Amino acid sequence: MKKNIKPSYEKARRRTKEEVKVLTDKYIIDNNLSKLGLNKKYFIITYGCQANVRDSETIKAILEDMSFKECNDMEQANLILLNTCAIRENAHNKVFGMLGRIKHLKETKEDIITVLCGCMAQEESVVNEIENKLKWVDLVFGTHNIYNLPKLLSETINEKNQVIEVLSKEGDIIENLPVKRDNKYKAFVNIMYGCDKFCTYCIVPYTRGKQRSRKIEYILEEVKDLIKQGYKEVTLLGQNVNAYGKDIDNYYSMAELLNEVAKTGIERIRFVTSHPWDFTDEMIDVISKNDNIMPYFHLPVQSGSNKILKLMGRRYTKESYLDLFNRIKNKIPNASITTDIIVGFPGETEEDFKETLDIVEKCKYDGAYTFIYSPRENTPASKMEDNVTIEEKEKRLKQLNELVNSFYKENNDKLLNKVVKVLVEGISEKDNNICCGYTDTNKLVNVKCSKDNIGKIIDVKITEAKTWSLDGVINE
Ligand code: SAH
Ligand code: SF4
Ligand code: F3S
Q1: Which domains does the chain carry?
Q2: Ligand showing the shortest atom-to-Cα distance for residue 238
Q3: How far is CA 438 from CA 82, 273, 422, 442, in A?
Q4: Given ligand 2 and candidates 13, 199, 212, which is best to mutate, with the most ligand atoms within 8 Å of its CB?
Q5: pLDDT on residue 181
Q6: How far is the CA of 190 from the centre of ligand 1 (A)?
Q7: Mutate which of 89, 190, 202 to test ligand 1's pocket (most atoms within 8 Å of Cβ)?
Q8: Which of 212, 282, 263 has its CA nearest to residue 241?
Q9: Rounded to an integer, what is the distance from CA 56 to the centroid of its chain?
Q10: Residue 311 CB-density burial (10 A; 0-12 exposed, 13-18 middle, 19+ buried)
Q11: What is the mean pLDDT of each run of 10 residues along the chain (476 residues)?
Q12: Left if phi > 0, otherwise alpha if psi is -120 to 50, otherwise beta: which for 75?
């Protein structure tokens, strides 16, 4: 029997100078493995951020290389996978709730294989719990060894024992993984993996390992290939994309990478997520000069209080954030900027919270994801004294959301009667004469037009502005 390999927080925290290799032959699928899934169906649920969405696209392609077929009904599946997120406690709870449902299903149907992967699989305590209490979960693997899924599944099926293989050390960049994309017009392109920022509240540097930038030639090759397939938009992905290249000596910077991607001629380029610390003037310059780099930025602020920003380890102040914000807006006036905010961080006083409201007032964000602070095991913030009651945190979140929402509508109103470019993606479920798509600034628009426009970028005149979306007609 194979010995289980379990994660360790201690090892996950370590950063070594060891060179990251690029491997182009690590993913292997032999004749036996390629038939393992014949006549079997899989069902996958993806939690969390775009990194997980993109990982699921690879997991799906690997399973299809093994002859499994995707199905949309969990009850029909022979193989159920949960690609999990560990960012906050409620992400955990959702997964454990789903595991309860799957256990129930397993009691009525024998041949279901259950797999847990993604960021929760990188957590020591989660894996211990699964090993000790949820022995019926068949396979656990982490974010660093997706390439090994065929072998792991084969062991799971043949050995009929729980298989756990979670590596704590990130290892190399694997460049020969397949992908089954969810969307025909927009694609996610990884440009870096991991994160070295270690914000004190965040679990990602532990679940995703050290920062590793992909070599530019592989990124450009992927984008050029997507253009050939008819893709209109790419989103360059990473936890902290502005630090692209910093882990490789004398390498391309994010500004240089953006410039090169723009030269491929792909119609739309986006990138997430931007850490304010690494956003350079050179980047702003490149973006303002290239029409195919979209004027949309996700620029998480987290808090408006300098005291809290320092405790969070964010490396910028309210003032330097506002300065960056204004530099972007001055050079790219139509820029739409969204953010992430945490309320109720340990030690956050009413005064600190007012600073957060103040920065929201000043930035009038086009959108904000707001969260109540959730302590994550083993992170520095989880050891800080937290004297803010949950009632107070909920009150602050509600107050913050009201303010944030008021700016959604205000910003959308500015687009009334204007003509904007929309990449039409699909047809409305309720009305066949309405299609939906996104503007260059990433706003959702419902357009009165025929489905022949799907996959095209068209000029749309905005006729109505709502809080969460816009309505429009084709501009003749
Ligand atoms: N790499 C991105 C963020 C990824 S996590 C960045 O640095 O901007 C997405 C968001 O989840 C974060 O921006 C933060 O607002 C929130 N988040 C992360 N850890 C959290 C925690 N422990 N409690 C509450 N929210 C958290
Ligand atoms: Fe987490 Fe900070 Fe890294 Fe973002 S930059 S993933 S918040 S540690
Ligand atoms: Fe969640 Fe992992 Fe993303 S913790 S937010 S899925 S990197």
Answers
A1: 16-165 (3.40.50.12160), 189-294 (3.30.750.210), 307-414 (3.30.750.200), 419-474 (2.40.50.140)
A2: 1
A3: 29, 18, 5, 5
A4: 199
A5: 98
A6: 19
A7: 202
A8: 212
A9: 11
A10: buried
A11: 84 88 94 95 98 98 98 96 97 95 92 96 96 96 97 92 93 94 97 97 96 97 98 97 95 98 98 94 98 97 98 97 98 97 97 98 97 96 95 98 95 96 93 95 96 96 96 94
A12: alpha
Residue bearing tokens 């309860």? 100
Strand order across the beta sheet in which 41-46 lies: 69-70, 41-46, 79-84, 113-118, 139-141, 163-165
Q: Is the bond preceding 143 in cis, omega lying within 30 degrees of 0? A: no
CA of 51 to the centre of ligand 3 (A): 7
Cα of 51 vs centre of ligand 2, distance in Å, is 13
Q: Is 111 exposed, middle or buried (0-12, 13-18, 19+ CB in 10 A)?
A: exposed
**Cα dihedral sign for 215, 166, 16, 9?**
positive
CA-nearest of 134, 140, 84, 90 to 115 is 140
**Calpha distance 329→363 (Å, rounded):** 10
Does the C-beta of 198 come closer than 6 Å to ligand 1?
Answer: no
- β-strand pairing of 470-474 with 457-465: antiparallel
Q: What is the pLDDT of residue 1?
A: 61
Question: How far is Cα 267 from Cα 231, in angstroms, rounded to an integer?
Answer: 9
